[in-house]
Amino acid sequence: MRISQLSRESTVPVATIKYYLRERLLHEGQLTSATQASYDESHVRRLRLIRALIVGAGLSIAVTRDLLDGVDAPPESGHDLLGIAHHALIAPTAADVDTTAVDALLDQWGWDTHGCDSAAKAAVAGAIDGIRAAGFELPEGMLDTYAGAMHTVASAEIAGVPTDSAEAAVHYVVLGTVLVEPLLLALRRLAQQSASRARFGAMPL
């Protein structure tokens, strides 16, 4: 198909497709002349993936390119797939962040985090420090409740990772991590509203 048909099939404007080509997010089509190229269904699928990451997940072009590089050249270890997705979601932190308290919590919960991404630990430490700096105290046992709920979710997610092909595994882990995170936050808000109505009804506080 020509680029105009690719645009119709993918619902992505031609100018945007050309931009993705320049940014090396979309692979080149097969040249049919000096100025024309032919595209196929692989380009349609790739464009849908790109749009899911940029528009759906709100990722930058640079981060999207890194994720797509991981999709194109997946690591040998299934465990290392998570690093590709987490790199896109966790902002870099200072190297000197003290994660001693976080390490103690992880040990307490029995989580195997050997070789765990230090940025994830630093993000937890930063979040806890931010809560305390704001003068907000989590109710006793609430952090353990959060950890238990997240471990249940994570265990179910990892159990669903396909093992029949590296490409399928990469798509599942990367998209499942990047695109589902906003869903988890939205569901939490709805669950809070439901629990609040169950506890308080229409009563004023």
TrEMBL record:
GO terms for molecular function: DNA binding. It comes from the Bacteria. SUPFAM superfamilies: Putative DNA-binding domain. InterPro entries: DNA-bd_dom_put_sf (IPR009061), MerR-type_HTH_dom (IPR000551). One of its GO terms (biological process) is regulation of DNA-templated transcription. Residues 1-70 form the HTH merR-type domain. PROSITE patterns: HTH_MERR_2 (PS50937). This is MerR-like DNA binding protein. The lineage of its organism: Bacteria, Bacillati, Actinomycetota, Actinomycetes, Micrococcales.
